[in-house]
Amino acid sequence: MKRNLIAISALAISAMFANPSAWAGEEIVVDMYDDEFTPQEVEARHGDKIIFRNRSVRSPHAATLLGKGWRFGRKDFFKEQVITPGNVFIFTVPENMAAGTYDLGCGLHEVMKAKVKIAAN
Ligand SMILES: [Cu+2]
């Protein structure tokens, strides 16, 4: 009986220290130029913020993220986001986003393509 009590209090202590809300996530910057995303591949985890910055002088860009296959993704997590030059769009990776590789594109410039890998945490 005493042994069980010790085991239970050890569990309670480890639960106190393993507080998942203490992890704030990272900020990952993706720059959008006239013809490309830089970098062209990023890896993110749930809770990270992906910051899309339009670095073009004149062109607006529209970030599009699709799962499992360009243009025929089963699930898009954000619709096209029109970002004017000098502005940013911040996407926080939701907890329910499946791990794997997603296609990042620009709804205004078909040539702009990149990859976003969501890690399994
Ligand atoms: Cu564009």
Structural overview:
The chain has 121 residues and is mostly beta strands. It has one domain: Immunoglobulin-like. The protein is 13% helix and 42% strand. It is built from one helix and nine strands. The strands form two sheets. A five-stranded mixed beta sheet has the order 3-9-8-5-6, with no helix packed on it. A four-stranded mixed beta sheet has the order 2-1-4-7, with no helix packed on it. A hairpin with a 6-residue loop joins β8 and β9 (113-118). The two termini are 37 Å apart. The model is unreliable at 10-16 and 68-74 (pLDDT under 50). The site of copper (II) ion has 5 residues, from loops.
Features:
mainly beta; binds copper (II) ion; single chain; Immunoglobulin-like; 1 helix; 5-stranded mixed beta sheet; 121 residues; 4-stranded mixed beta sheet
